[in-house]
Automatic annotation (TrEMBL):
The keyword Ribosomal protein does not apply. It is an enzyme of class 1 (oxidoreductase). Keywords: Heme, Hydrogen peroxide, Iron, Metal-binding, Oxidoreductase, Peroxidase. The lineage of its organism: Bacteria, Bacillati, Bacillota, Bacilli, Bacillales. It comes from the Bacteria. Residues 1-24 have a biased composition (Polar residues). It catalyses: 2 H2O2 = O2 + 2 H2O. Belongs to the catalase family. Residues 8-392 form the Catalase core domain. GO terms for molecular function: catalase activity. This is Catalase. Residues 1-26 are annotated as: Disordered. Its EC number is 1.11.1.6.
């Protein structure tokens, strides 16, 4: 047998017998000196890293991004610097609320996280398949996710918590309307759009900045699942989306998306009709039309799910020169929370793993930590500044664009509290049959709620978005909305 195909221990020694433990005679007991047995059992006990708190169930693929339009007037990001430039990337799709073993075809937003391995470091665009979110301040995120998880006593999903929170958080109405519409259950991961959701800042080589939003439009067309069919598939093949993506790529049917951006001049943020950094709102495409950027194509499946999909780590704070943060309060919280989750879940050196490691050179003074598996800097300089020729800062071209800050430090809400106009506009855009399914989905989701007070409070939000919206849900639940106002 060749040495390349010989079973070894984790320390490289050949294994003579992998079928039988070392025992004292044929009936044992087993000897503690069977270190191969002990190593196998001990490693098996530690094969699982902590599950992601959100986005636990996911599927991933490799591919590339190709620039099709010159947008250097807006950003100096190197991977967008010329038409035809191609950048390798990895994407992870996911559900939000379910556990690692949950079904793919549940009603839930889908994570849409893209890692671009650019020549100036990794750029992570960590969004969803919806352009908005349920809340707009990161301080509410732990509470929101608690409502999506299991009751601490019964360990069952809790519709009372879900709708109690939403009814007391009217900013959620826009996203709730999307979630409960046909778009709440995509047919496959290939047949849905993706969005950066947040507002970001682009900066060009002259230091001029604009605000930007990202839209990935599926080239396969948008397709959604019927509620009853989705439930049937969830029972028969809970990994349906994962399987579909793998099989499509495996047979050469490579899915693709066209990336567009909306671009807003900096000063418009001060005069636009709502706060453009509020992630519960969309920008009108009449005001800021979509501009094509390039094509994303997925053409290679992972070789190992754990190594590439489970250990993949994404952070909205992984920027490259030319792309920066905005004052979006949800984004500001995510800049910290995502990388911190990975430090806990995978380890302090998660960015050194092959799936996360940049394709460009990495020169840091970070040392040590659990699972440091490279040279750890050897004997080179391990502090900065130094006079030993160690890596030095790049200067003004790599610094962020200056921006003004003002005001008193305080716990301050967004200035705009119209949570109903955009949800109502979306409702009115739907065809009659789409409205009917939306209302039926909401009624089905709210029926288990035990409190009529919670139901009526939520119905009032639907009614303010559009009276027909609120009335339809009320009728479905057998509740009266007499005296409700759309004002």
């Amino acid at each position: 047998m060749s040495s390349n195909n010989r079973l070894t221990t984790s320390w490289g020694a050949p294994v003579g017998d992998n079928q039988n433990s070392i025992t004292a005679g044929s009936r044992g007991p087993t000897l503690i000196q069977d270190v191969h047995l002990l190593e196998k059992l001990a490693h098996f006990n530690r094969e699982r890293v902590p599950e992601r708190v959100v986005h636990a169930k996911g599927a991933g693929a490799h591919g590339y991004f190709e620039v099709t339009n010159d947008l250097t007037a807006y950003t100096k990001a190197s991977f967008l610097s010329e038409v035809g430039k191609m950048t390798p990337m990895f994407i992870r799709f996911s559900t939000v609320a379910g556990e690692l073993g949950s079904a793919d075809t549940v009603r839930d937003p889908r994570g849409f996280a893209v890692k671009f391995y650019t020549d100036e470091g990794n750029y992570d665009l960590v969004g969803n398949n919806t352009p908005v979110f349920f809340i707009r301040d990161a301080i509410k995120f732990p509470d929101f996710i608690h409502t999506q998880k299991r009751h601490p006593q019964t360990h069952l999903k809790n519709p009372n918590a879900v709708w109690d929170f939403w009814s007391l958080s009217p900013e959620s109405l826009h996203q709730v309307t999307i979630l409960m519409s046909d778009r709440g259950i995509p047919a496959t991961l290939r047949h849905m759009h993706g969005f950066g959701s947040h507002t970001f800042k682009w900066v060009n080589a002259q230091g001029e900045a604009v605000w930007v939003k990202y839209h990935f439009k599926t080239n396969q067309g948008v397709k959604n699942l019927d509620v009853d069919l989705a439930a049937k598939i969830a029972g028969e093949n809970p990994d349906y989306h994962t399987e579909d993506l793998f099989n499509a790529i495996d047979k050469g049917d490579f899915p693709s998306w066209t990336l567009y951006v909306q671009i807003m001049p900096l000063d418009d943020a001060n005069t636009y009709r709502f706060d453009p950094f509020d992630v519960t709102k969309v920008w009108s495409q009449k005001d800021y039309p979509l501009i094509e950027v390039g094509q994303m194509v997925l053409n290679r499946n992972p070789d190992n799910y754990f190594a590439e999909v489970e250990q993949a780590t994404f952070s909205p704070g992984s920027f490259v020169p030319g792309i920066e943060a905005s004052p979006d309060k949800m984004l500001q919280g995510r800049l910290f929370a995502y990388s911190d989750a990975h430090r806990y879940r995978v380890g302090a050196n998660h960015n050194a793993l092959p799936i996360n490691r940049p394709h460009s050179p990495v020169n840091t003074y970070q040392r040590d930590g659990a699972m440091r598996f490279d040279g750890n800097g050897g004997g080179s300089a391990y502090y900065e500044p130094n006079s030993l020729g160690g890596p030095a800062q790049g200067g003004s071209q790599q610094k962020i664009a200056p921006f003004e800050v003002s005001g008193e430090a305080d716990s301050v809400a967004y200035d705009h509290d119209d949570h109903y106009r955009q949800a109502g506009d979306l409702f009115r855009l739907l065809r009659a049959d789409e409205k009917e399914r939306l209302i039926r989905n909401i009624v089905g989701a709210m029926k288990p709620v035990e409190s009529d007070e919670i139901k009526l409070r939520q119905i009032a939000h639907f009614y303010k978005a559009d009276p027909a919206y609120g009335q339809g849900v009320a009728d479905g639940l057998g509740l009266s909305v007499t005296g409700m106002s759309s004002k």
